[in-house]
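Thread: quick sanity check before group meeting

JM: Hey all, I'm pulling together slides for Thursday and realized we never actually wrote out the predicted structure for the chain we discussed last week. Dropping the sequence here so it's in one place. If anyone has concerns about the input, flag it before I start.
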Amino acid sequence: MNAVAAANPFRFHGGRLAAAAAHFYGAPTPWIDLSTGISPWAYPVPDMAPSVLSRLPEPEELDRLEAVAARAFGVTNPAELVAVPGSDIAIRLLGSLFSGQNSAMLKPIYSGHIAAWPDAVEISMTEADEHDLLILANPNNPDGRVIKADRLRQFRGQLIVDEAFADTDPAVSLLPDRGNAIVLRSFGKFFGLAGIRLGFVIADLPVAQRLRTLLGDWPVSGIATKTGLAAYQDEHWQDKQRTRLRGAVVRLDGLLNGVGLNLVGGTSLFRLITHDKAPEIFEYLGQSGILVRPFEGDDRQLRFGLPANEEAWTRLTGALNYWRENQ
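JM (edit): ok, ran it. Output follows.
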């Protein structure tokens, strides 16, 4: 754990429920975790034979998964797509493969990128061509910023684009016409199954082969392989999920606006607000058994994910209304 995470684990990653339970000892349970950008509605994991757990995954199944994912993303050559055990590890591996370059990133950005490229300088897109390597997230986390694919294609250096939230709106993706860019995709956020640990890297063959060598013969589990195969072929469920997410985030907007929280961005999986009393709101919600996400570097920001059910909506609504009436 790095120094930031050790000092305040809530500012480094979402989902720290064990730390929250300790910090907010005595808070009502069950906890409502709104600190991540993970869908609260998960794809139904398909039934599997016990052998999926007792045997190593067959290489042919991994090939099928990569072919199905490639087709879903519009990638014509499946050899350019590498399955990884979550996109976070791919970020760290790419940071190692491309270390020592004149690198830059567009911030704010997911903390894993900052850890992987500690020497990258923070720039705006207008300064991108001064650097050999550019790292960004699109849509961005936590503010939802989107840079049009045509603008990204103008960059002449090595581009690494984290599209962890692109499944909510595939039109923003750099795929399939990525040029020489490296694109990362995440399974767990949109499909609500982050614990399966599945993601993909789409890159030119030399980079893809280096990643395969580093990852070894069994990069993802049998459960992840079977579930990914089913989910990426289930277009009906994906369309239904996008509709459900859009409806929920409109409802969340209404709630946050209604209690005077300033919306500054997000995707259909989360919303980012600013408020002068954001640390107070974080503490109050935590004492109410509701975890949201603060950020290092800007004490005025909080990110809210989507409540999973009416009980969660009721608790969040009640807590925010009580805070507003008593601040």
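AS: nice. The chain has 14 helices and 13 strands. Confidence is low (pLDDT under 50) at residues 1-6.
JM: adding both to the slides.
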